[in-house]
Every structure is written in structure tokens, then in C-alpha cells.
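Minutes, project huddle
Topic: does the predicted pose make sense with 3-acetylpyridine adenine dinucleotide bound?
PN asked that the exact inputs be recorded in the minutes so nobody has to dig through chat later. Recorded below.
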Amino acid sequence: MSSSAIQPSTVDVVIVGAGFSGLYLLHRFEKEGFSARCFERGDGVGGTWYWNRYPGARCDVESMQYSYGFNEDLQQEWHWPEKFSAQADILAYANHVADRFDLRKYITLETEVRASHYDEAARVWHVETDKGEKVTCKYFIMAGGCISTAQVPKFEGLADYKGEKYHTGNWPHEPVSFKGKRVAVIGTGSTGIQAIPVIAEEAAHLAVFQRQANYSIPARNMPMTEDYATSWKDGYAEKRAEMRYQPNGMLREVNDVSALDVSEEKRQRIYEQRWKEGTGAFLGAFNDILTNKAANDTMAEFVRNKIRSIVKDPVTAEILCPKTHPIGTKRICIDSGYYQTFNRENVELVDISQKPIERLTEKGLVANGREFEFDAIVFATGFDAMTGTLFNVDIRGRDGLALKKKWEAGPRTYLGLMTESFPNMFIITGPGSPSVKGNMINTIEQHVDMVTDTMIHMRKQGLDLIEPALKAEDEWVDHVQEVAYKTLFPQANSWYMGANIPGKPRLFMPYIAGVGSYRRTCEDVVAENYRGFRFEAKRQDMAAE
Ligand code: N01
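Predicted holo structure (C-alpha cells), as shared on screen:
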């Protein structure tokens, strides 16, 4: 619960979001003596893991790695029950962190920031919430996450449907029972693929509406063993240090060989071995899966053959075989029995790749000219990713420029952290940062440390304003695209490209040169006197304040 004490209306920093970014920001600000307030729209902390409590929700990064590394005692004392954590365990961890570091006193729950306008004369941001509260701050930080604005497609007749409706990213806090019910799941991304096997076990009948098939790898989740946890906890600090410079911000074995430089027999042996090991390691089977289409095809075909061997009905198996994009160019899914689910009597796959869902009706929906009736429809239809949450706030920078206006042709940032014309506004894991292309918590810690250290630098130097130079920003935007177009990623209609939202500008949003190389770039930027940023000293007329 948020603190009942009267909260200040002027602070050094306002933070939007009490997820993993917001919590670590608050911790660092407290230690460094910056006053802060954090607004969170949920009634609890945890961000993504607070909202995404759909059946089967689980992280695809190992628990020992998907956790904070900033505090040795925290990482030694916390016990993860499973190798890959379920949503409830990650949420419990976020709550533990909030309590352990006494952060709740800074957080105002169930409150959305509606607007934040920069006042150039006073060099402050004026922040306003949906409860009408107004707060003035020097620094404004958007820490609302990359995939936090759930999107339900604008199906015709959406309002006509009278049955139960759920979006996986906005799941009720009360238990949802599908027992004995006819259920539809629309969407087969990472979320749908996790939810479908669990819902299938409970529902009387489940219809899965698939537009594009996706590649999924078995998670091979298991209970955490004492030995495995200890192997991490002994030397955790060294392991974290190594993780920070890895391409994905995590430790995993990458085979530094082209898929085309080994014999067919050896290639199949390697894929088989990695399939047995499960997620994480799979894409690392060879070093050119994401850059060479011929190499990629060998892995994609291996997975398609696995699907054909698991799914008994050959027609269903073929519909489940992904053919629209190279493997890995949409986030590879992890599952626990996803393909096996289609062998169940009560599960039906509906292929909507040729004709979209026509409309929703009072009792269900119409697709492929057929009328379906459902007691519940689950939308696993994803998010207005990376920019949706930023645009939900009316952010205005210099001369009243709206962020939405500045980014109408696509997001523009320097290092994914700041955007020109919006002085003293930071974005944690914004477009142009590695964010979703690696271990999120690792990248979050890097961003938070860089932002906090920059603020400390400014305080020491008597600087009042930081803003990226337009040239540096333009070059970064070009660089992000250049790196992406050297890979196969742009060949997929993915949310990385903004392709899942009709009308959204198409441009590759995350930075995929790697978490480690991004960190090095940031270190160089700082070492070169914050190359690409410009600062202004405290003005004389404000010096006495
Ligand atoms: O969303 P998605 P998500 N009619 O956008 C379909 C992270 N995550 O929530 O592929 C019919 O990937 C859409 O079809 P298509 C992870 O980064 C992580 O699943 O566009 N269908 C697709 O099948 C992930 O990438 C974890 O043709 C429509 C689905 O809905 C990200 O979250 C777990 C449609 C949306 O897939 C988002 O995943 C879960 C329409 N009009 C999520 N519109 C782990 O850590 C959309 N679809 C394991």
C-alpha cells in the first residue's frame, strides 16, 4: 500500500511506473539523496509481472539471471523455487524488494500520470495525475515498461459480445475458472503459447485462432535444486559482471560456428541436443542464425519437423508450422506442452491466416464464414509496444512540442534514453535501447545506474539541464536501423517493427547490437565527457534557489 503521509508537491524526480525500473530508481535516489515520487497505475508494484497474471505466465530467462544484481545480500538470501520462474514468484520478489529497501513510502498507487509539460523558463517539469494531483520536478523519468499497453484489436462488433472477455496483459486479480466452458484464445505469440496448454486442461472446449504460426521451444522447466542455486550464489558477483557484457545480458553457451560450416548430420545432432536442453540455448546453436537466411532455414526446418512429429493430425501440424518469418525474428516462444495440446480432443485450431476474424457477435465470433459460440474469449493479442505507454501520457517538451508529434514518423532517441527537445526527461529501456532484446533486469540496472550517475555528475558540476544534441540523436536512430537491417529481423511483421498495430510507423525499435556492446558505448559516451549530450549550467537568476 502507498504511504498515507502527505507527499511533497516539489521533488527532484518524478518516476512513472513501479516495476523493476521504478523500484531500482527509487533505491538509488534514496541512497544518493535525490527526492523522488513514483506514480503507479496498478494497486501494487511489479509492473509487467503485476499485470500479466494469465494462466501459465512464466519468464523465459532463468531465475538465477532474471533478478537484480545490485545487492549481494539480496541475491544471496532470495530463493527461487523453479529454474524458470512463474509470474507469482517474480511478483513476490518485486514485493520483497519494495519492502526490503523500504521503497513503498515513495510510491503512489492506483494513480496514472496524465500529463507532463516542460517549463523552459523555470527548467522544471509540471506533472499531473488522473487524481488531479500536481507535482513539479527537475527530472521526469518514464519507467512504464516496453510491453505494458495491452491492445485488443478493433474487431467489428467487439462491444456486442456479451460473454466473458479477458486480455492476458490485464488479467483479473480474482481467480478465473474456465471449467466446463467453451473458450476462445485469439493470438499465438509468447503469451498465447503459454496460456493455451493451461486453459485447455480446464476448458470443456478450446478454439485457438491463429493468424501467423510461431516457433516455440520446450522450456524444460524444473524445480530449483540446491546445487544449481549454489553454483550461481558462489561467485554471483563475478557472474553478474560477466553477464553485463554478454550479447543478451545473460550467460548462455553460444556455439561460435556457422550452421553452414558443419555436416548435415552434425547440425541435426546439435539442434537435437539443444532442443533437449530447452529454451535459452536454442538460438545459440550456431552464430549466424539471425544473419544468414540459409543458416536460419536449417533451424526453422528442424523445428517444423519437431512440430510434425509431435502433432498427430498432419493438417493441424502443417498449420502450426511457421513459414511467414525466419526463426528468431519474432521473439522465440517457450512452452510447456504447447504443440502436444493440439492432440487433445477438446482443442481446435482455427486458421485465420487467409481471412481475418470477420466480427464478434453477441455469443461469439464469425471466422472463415463459420459462427462460433463461446462462454469466454481470451485476447492474447499483444501490446502497443515500446511507444504505446509513452504516448499514453501527454508529454510536452520545449515550446510545447508533444512527444507524439515529434515521433509521428517513428521514435527518435539518443541511446534509447533521451530525446532532443525534452530536456531532463529520461526513458528507461526506451526505443533505441537493447531493452527487450536481452535480459530486461540487466538492461534496466544499466540504464538506472547511468541516469543516476549522470544526475550526480550534474549536481557536482552545477549543471541544471541535459539534452541530447540533434545530430547525436539522428546518428543513433540511423545506427539502430543500420544494425537491424544487417540481420534477418526486419523480415518479420513483428511488434519490434511496430507491425502489429495498424497505422503504426514501421521501423525497428530495439537496439540489437547487443547488451554488452551497448554498455561499452555508454561507457565511452560518459568517458568522452558525455559525447552527444549538451548540458547547461545553473542560471544566475536561479542560483539562489
Ligand atoms: O504478443 P505478440 P504477446 N487478429 O504481439 C495475434 C513478451 N513475453 O503478448 O502473429 C488475430 O507477440 C498475433 O498474430 P500475428 C515477449 O517479448 C514474454 O504474445 O501478428 N490475431 C499474435 O499471434 C513477447 O514477444 C514472455 O499474425 C491477432 C498475437 O496476437 C511479448 O511479450 C511471455 C490480431 C500477439 O502476439 C508480446 O507477446 C509472454 C488480430 N487482429 C510475453 N492481432 C516470457 O518471458 C494480433 N493477433 C516467456
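Observations noted during the meeting:
- Residues 10-149+385-470 form a domain with the FAD/NAD(P)-binding domain fold (CATH 3.50.50.60).
- The mean pLDDT is 96.
No decisions taken; revisit at the next huddle.
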